[in-house]
Amino acid sequence: MSDVMVELRGAAGLITLNRPRALNALSLDMIRSLTAALLAWRDDDEVKLVAIRGMGKEGPFGAFCAGGDIRFFHQAVLAGDPRLEDFFTEEYALNHLIHRFPKPYVVFLDGVVMGGGMGISGHGNPNSMRIVTERTRMAMPETLIGLFPDVGGGWFLGRCPGRVGEYLALTGHALGGDDACAALLADGVVNSAELESIWTELAAGGLAALPGVRERLGAPMGETPHLGPHREQIDRIFGLHSVAAILRALEAEPDGVWVSQTANALRKASPLMLNVTLEQVRRARGLTLADELRMERGIVRRCFQLRPGTASETMEGIRAMAIDKDHEPRWNPETAEEVVTEMVGAYFDSPWPAHAHPLRHLD
Q1: Which residues form the Enoyl-CoA hydratase/isomerase domain (predicted)?
Q2: Domain positions in the chain
């Protein structure tokens, strides 16, 4: 059975990510299937609405998408597989297609929503409806594998309230549904038990069903359990000018669970990529999504080519987390204090002139 199930039911285009054993991690073939379906439906006047969900291990829902297939990245680098370049170019083009999609795009963000799963979740498109549940675990944990929050991550994290974007980008902290709404990364919460009936309602009613679905979306189901109590600390500390300064500020805070968890998360991540990520999010605040994706495309190429083969932070992070699974990456440099401006700047030096950029056609 296909890893992407596509169905047209009446005026509704329905997509199910169907790779549950891999938590619906995106392959290049899946990216191409999603792109083909959305391009066809964008230009089909009979299709009025699109809905997308993930298949869980026990049936529909329960997991949305855990990101890109990082094992493929590792294998592609070792094999010199040119599809690695295609993967990122086509994934980012898909993210932009979704952002500019002219029809309602309803995303069921149940269960794990990470990395590439965030990239296909709507990017705050006015035509999107991003539904989360009590089971949602939403994160951009790329710094833990020596990467950065791509798929437009700088753009949507840069538009979170205050310095929440920097906090999420650097720590990779996973948000529940309530906190996802508070961070402006989702539009409403429902109980997971309602998802099947909402899906059926949209499939049967198309556009006519949207008002009723919107009425079923609740605001956060209670106090935002994580972001709310720590917003003052997040805004004060993660607004500082460098990762080293952020770590110093955390060490100066009164000891507590949040402080220790946050500091530990930063210490596990690549110091170099933490600095690249901080710069990415801050630059992205002044960019369109198209320009931000073009910037990211250059950064991700640098991730794999500035230090070729297994020498890159990304390859070392994937090795430690997904290949050898020793969870002991050997970062270079080892500390945030050792990262200098020139190291970070090299990631933002585009590998292509503007006229030859692989995403030059995005508007």
Answers
A1: 13-348
A2: 1-363
Please report the pLDDT score of residue 222 as a whole number: 47
Q: Phi/psi of residue 11, each to 5°? A: -95, 10
The two structure tokens encoding residue 167: 């906090």
Identify whether the C-beta of residue 318 lies closer than 8 Å to the C-beta of residue 257: no
Q: How would you classify residue 145: left for phi > 0, otherwise alpha for psi between -120 and 50, otherwise beta?
A: alpha
Residues 167-180, buried b or exposed e (16+ Cβ, 10 A)? bbbbbbbbbbbbbb
- Distance CA(225)–CA(192), nearest Å, equals 19
User: d(Cα 347, Cα 314) in Å, to the nearest integer?
Assistant: 13
The residues pairing with 139 across neighbouring beta strands, listed in sequence order, are 114
- Closest among 316, 348, 346, 338 to 145, alpha carbons compared: 316
Domain 1-363 has CATH 3.90.226.10: yes
Q: Tokens for 330, please give them.
A: 């050997």
Alpha-carbon gap, residue 91 to 108, rounded angstroms? 19
Which of 4, 18, 2, 110 lies closest to 64, judged by CA?
Answer: 110
Cβ–Cβ < 8 Å for 227, 198: no
Residues designated catalytic: 68, 116, 142, 150
At residue 96, the 3 state secondary structure works out as helix
* Residue pLDDT, tens place only, 46-97: 999 999 999 999 999 999 999 999 999 999 999 999 999 999 999 999 999 9
- DSSP secondary structure letter of residue 144: G
Residues 197-233 as b/e (b if ≥16 CB within 10 A, e otherwise) read ebbebbbebbeebbeebeeebeebbeebebbeebbeb
pLDDT surpasses 60 at 293:
yes
